[in-house]
Amino acid sequence: MKRIRLGLVGAGAIGVTHAQAAQRNERVALVAICDEDIRRATALAPAAGARAYDSINAMRYEEDLDGVIVATPPASHASIARSFLDERVHVLCEKPLATSVAAAQAMIQSAERSGAILTMASKFRFVEDIRLARAMIEAGELGEVLALENTFSSATPMSGRWNGDPAVSGGGVIIDNGTHAVDLFRYLCGPLHDVRATEYHCFQRLPVEDTAMLFARCENGALATSDLSWSVDKRADSYLRVHGTRVTLEIGWQQSRMRRDGDREWRPFGSGYAKMDAFSRLLENFADAIGGKAPPEVSNDDALASVLAIDAAYRSLHGVAAPWA
Q: Taking a C-beta distance cutoff of 8 angstroms, is the pair 105, 89 a contact?
């Protein structure tokens, strides 16, 4: 079986995780790694059996690539992804897809023109406990879903990191962790009708928000909230609660559990958050899409909806109505 030839752009922490996932997959070969800091690409390349580059142009023209993983800071996603999409190279792009709605739309248009696949790396869709929760919701086991409560809150110093530079990141914790939150809400309960946010005091003295609350209303009527912070360490065992009329789910980092209405005891389900397993399933889906075996789990509509939701959250901070809400 011919292996799918992949390139990786971005050899930072998330790029390393993608490279490790590629090494676990016999269907793909990671043949090239590019980073503007050639030292990082060179350090990562030997374990993957890849060539190191410091220029995407050189990598694009010297390597015969089927697909590429874009794992650079968000402001660069659109230009890098489009340069490959225009050459009919399939793209798996890290979240957020882009830092603006216009940039996301331009990426999708490039994919549609060339016929190449564009998909966003939304890792939580590939966490087994999240997939189990979705199956239970679709089967009606929870009854009517009333509310979802998400918490991504931990003490993470951001001074000196690109995440705190709005020109590079596109914003603060809302675009960073909030992108995961809104995609989780949509994955479990469908389209979002309205998204708003409240920003709190910036504890780390960054030019972006480090603590915020995000509020969403799903079209099926469920209310969703996301507690986002790089400064407040809540040390929560679970990162998502789903409240139904029959069953409540707690989806956690170490394990997940469920409780039926009227019961006092919780019953465990699932096995918690296994990061590398999620990234491996994500890459497997990308390989399936390239090979024509299955569509991407995250469609262009899904990826654009996440950008629209984050855009609406930031608009609400400034008292500007979102055009889609």
A: no
Q: 194 with 247, same domain?
A: yes
Residue pLDDT tens, the chain, 325 long = 689 999 999 999 999 999 999 999 999 999 999 999 999 999 999 999 999 999 999 999 999 999 999 999 999 999 999 999 999 999 999 999 999 999 999 999 999 999 999 999 999 999 999 999 999 999 999 999 999 999 999 999 999 999 999 999 999 999 999 999 999 999 999 999 899 999 987 789 999 999 999 999 998 899 999 999 999 999 889 999 999 999 999 999 999 999 999 899 999 999 999 999 999 999 999 999 999 999 999 999 999 999 999 999 999 988 776 665 4
Q: Report which of 27, 41, 113 is spatially closest to residue 71, judged by C-alpha positions.
A: 41
- Could you give the strand order of the β-sheet that contains 211-218, starting from the edge strand earlier in sequence? 192-199, 211-218, 223-229, 145-153, 238-244, 247-252, 256-260, 267-269
- For the chain, the straight-line distance linking the first and the last C-alpha, in angstroms and rounded, comes to 47
Task: Indicate yes or no: pTM above 0.85.
Answer: yes
Range of the structural domain that residue 27 is part of:
4-121+278-298
Number of domains in the chain: 2
Q: Flag whether 303 is in a domain.
A: no
Triad 308, 310, 314: Cα angle to 5°: 115
d(CA 290, CA 238): 34
Do residue 205 and residue 231 come from a single domain? yes
Same domain, 205 and 167: yes
| Cα–Cα distance, 309 to 162 (Å, whole number) | 22
Amino acid at 325: A
Between CA 280 and CA 303 the distance in angstroms is: 20
Runs of H (alpha helix) within the chain: 13-23, 38-48, 56-62, 77-85, 101-114, 128-138, 166-169, 173-189, 275-290, 300-317
